[in-house]
Amino acid sequence: MKKDFKSGFVTLIGRPNVGKSTLMNQLIGQKIAITSNKPQTTRNRIQTVLTTDDGQIVFVDTPGIHKAKNKLGEYMVNVAERTLNEVDVVLWLVEPTTFIGAGEQHIISQLKKVTTPVVLVINKIDSVKKEDVLPAIAAYKDVYDFAEIVPVSARNGDNTDELVKVIMKYLPYGPQFYDEDTITDQPERQIVAELIREKALHCLQEEIPHGIAVAIDSMKVRNKVMHIDATIICERDSHKGIIIGKKGSMLKKIGSTARYEIEKMLDQQVNLKLWVKVKKDWRDSEFLMKNFGYREDE
């Protein structure tokens, strides 16, 4: 390994729809799972990894920094604040506007509590005239002392190379945490399967005990659409009937709610096809358990 190799942790914050997933996919160079809207993802904050000749950037997902409305909200805000202090660089993604609203002001108040260098990333510069980017930079410069300000277009990839250079500048020298070919520490298929399972349990409520698993049979991109074939596995024939529902209505409901979440996560159109199979006692079979992504340490 090079003596001057750098490595460190970076987190990306920003309001919904500001292009966090698009930027991440642009930097890593392939579709990856960034976020799932489940609060549980805070436990194993999904990490994506970018390795270059000069260093390795490990992106850590934070739960949203928002005003807490309840206990769970408070917990998530605390986790987010802790993450901001634990990483080496914070990237804050905003749109190219001079209007700094209440949501942004709240984020600024949170950032003022941390000592981590914050890089402001002004995204979507392809959507405005070049001369409109400068006033946005000036407006944000007035409200916080950023380490750097980098305008980019996540969609077109404009200036994203510069952003990587800026991140590297603030990372400490250190070892490589992951192999060169590691992209994420949670395989995309596993996250998609988990989302489908979560939506199935949610739609079925108490009708079926937790004895269902989801197997992803195939995931392929064709004509910019992600085609996913998945099978919901249950333990009894009676369960199969409940999952399919009257004239397939329940399976349709599970499919459409899961597809909505998966599209949000992958930031692209999804065509999801679901099947239901009965495999009696799948939970007693080590082979099947492994097949469905359950490991012994869980």
Provide a descriptive summary of the structure in words:
With 298 residues, the chain is α/β, with parallel strands linked by helices. The protein has helices at residues 20-28, 71-86, 102-111, 133-141, 160-169, 188-204, 237-244, 249-266, 286-291; strands at residues 6-13, 47-51, 55-60, 89-94, 118-122, 148-151, 212-222, 225-234, 270-278. The strands form two sheets. A six-stranded mixed β-sheet has the order 2-3-1-4-5-6, with helices on both faces. It has a three-stranded mixed β-sheet with strand order 7-8-9. Strand 4, helix 3 and strand 5 form a beta-alpha-beta unit. The longest helix is centred in the C-terminal third of the chain and has 18 residues, at 249-266. The radius of gyration is 21 Å and the shape is elongated. The two termini are 34 Å apart. The model is unreliable at 33-44 (pLDDT under 50).
